[in-house]
Design a protein that fits this description.
Elements lengths: L2 H6 L4 E6 L4 E8 L5 E7 L2 H14 L5 E5 L5 H6 L5 E5 L2 H11 L7 H14 L12 H34 L2 H6 L5 H9 L3 H7 L1 H10 L4 H13 L7 H37 L4 H5 L5 H12 L9 H8 L4 E5 L2 E5 L6 H17 L1 H12 L4 H22 L5 H10 L3 H5 L9
Parallel strand pairs: 1-4, 4-5
Antiparallel strand pairs: 1-2, 2-3, 6-7
Helix pairs in contact: 6-12, 6-14, 8-12, 10-11, 14-16, 15-18, 16-17, 16-18, 17-18
Length: 426
């Protein structure tokens, strides 16, 4: 059997799968055949199980390749339980561009998308990477850190709303309540959502409140003075009454999110403590309790997942894109990217500036030549990805002093920017 035939019969059959909430459009082609079978199955666990069993019996348990436009979700979670099914997740943008090649109008149609997924799988399988599920603890961590991030975003959305509302009738509350994402702010604005309520509470109650939350004596005295001298922005009782209710309602939601985030933080910490790469990812400066688990799920535990640091840089969207047209060449940031993964590396780079001397020096160096904050963070994340990848492959925790010595040996300008306190001993 020649190489082409061996590749053709690597799988017993190929399936293009377009999933939906109600039903799924499937296109199945048996290896060595040109006939394409159309199948439609309902979004129902029993129906899905029956379809899988039929495929298993039909092909005697031989491997079947499935191309589907996602890497997570109820369908993938169900299919990944069967070892004879090999899933090839397709980037939605990839499928959209492929669709536009045949339909410039950008018209979308589920049956046609299933055919395109099948065509991509058969013709360009060497360009696709099969999805290999990580171990259970890493998959659990991934879902929980992503869920936590969504809750943080929701809390930010609510606190932004409260900020806008307070500016309309009680701007002093923004300063007196403290961080709107804190329990202190929840308690303050729930008890005293208006300037009148603050004054009715009295100076003693306010002093006890701030003392309870550990505010400094000087800060408490300043707040008490401000409450005595404050002038209301509006005296329209209709406006004040309506907006105060909105503030209290929003802060009750913020309180629920604060409790939920604290609970999931504890669970993530417990999970991550048992992760096989816990010590490795915790060693990176600035990773901490939040970003170390996120970095671990970005890499996973399968060392064959990425063949080089460049693959991580491309997948995460940290690596820039070079656009060439005729004599014109320009470099721009990558817009099509998994946002959570991209965000993880950028946020880690920002935190590393505080904890890592060389990262701090790198940031200052680029600011001095006029680069903007986020461009520097992406560039710094690019460097960190190469470092993290090498530590991950070698299963060796990061050592700041060792890296600084490597910079010195390489004659890096960064080594000269480190202060005497930061430089490693010779």
């Amino acid at each position: 059997m020649n190489e082409q035939n061996a590749k053709e019969f690597e799988f017993a059959a190929f399936v293009g799968w377009d999933w939906a909430d109600q039903q799924h459009e499937l296109r199945l082609q048996v290896a060595g055949s040109t006939e394409v079978e159309r199948q439609v199955i309902k979004q129902d666990p029993a129906v899905l199980f029956e379809w899988v069993e039929q495929v298993r019996k039909r092909f005697g348990g031989a491997r079947v390749a499935i191309a589907i436009e996602q890497s997570r979700g109820p369908v993938v979670y169900a299919l990944m339980a069967y070892d004879f099914l090999v899933i090839f997740p397709i980037n939605p943008k990839c499928l959209a561009r492929y669709r536009e090649a045949f339909r410039p109008s950008k018209a979308k149609d589920d049956p046609f998308d299933a055919e395109l997924a099948l065509d991509l799988l058969i013709r360009h399988r060497d360009q696709l990477k099969s999805w290999q599920p990580d171990n259970e603890i890493t998959r659990t961590l991934r879902l929980n850190v992503e869920h936590r991030r969504e809750m943080v975003k929701e809390r930010t959305r609510l606190t932004n709303r409260v900020t806008s509302i307070l500016k309309c009738y009680f701007p002093q509350g923004l300063r007196w309540a403290g961080d709107l994402g804190s329990r202190q702010a929840c308690d303050f604005l729930t008890a005293w959502p208006t300037l009148e309520a603050v004054r009715d509470a009295g100076q003693r109650a306010l002093q006890e409140f701030y003392s309870k939350y550990g505010c400094k004596h000087k800060t408490i005295e300043q707040r008490l003075k401000e409450t005595r001298e404050a002038v209301p922005l509006t005296t329209d009782r209709a406006v004040i009454s309506a907006l105060a209710r909105r503030v209290k309602a929003s802060m009750s939601q913020v309180r629920c999110l604060i409790d939920a985030i604290a609970e999931i933080d504890g669970y993530i910490e417990e999970l991550f403590a048992n992760h096989p790469d816990h010590d490795l990812f915790e060693s990176f400066p600035g990773a901490g309790k939040v970003l170390a688990p996120r970095l671990s799920v970005a890499f996973g535990t399968d060392r064959s997942r990425y063949e080089s640091a460049e693959e991580v840089q491309l997948l995460s969207g940290i690596s820039p894109v070079t656009v060439r047209s005729g004599k014109s060449i320009r470099v721009r940031r990558r817009y099509a990217r998994p946002k959570f993964m991209h965000q993880t590396f950028v946020e880690f780079a920002e935190q590393s500036i505080i904890r890592s001397p060389w990262a701090k020096a790198f940031y200052k160096q680029h600011r001095q030549v006029g680069h903007n904050h986020y461009a520097i963070l992406r560039t710094l994340a690019y460097k960190w990805q190469r470092i993290i990848y090498r530590c991950w492959i070698d299963r060796v925790p990061y050592d700041e002093k060792m890296y600084q010595m490597a910079l010195s040996r390489a004659g890096s300008p960064l080594a000269g920017l480190l202060t005497s306190e930061d430089r490693p001993n010779a």
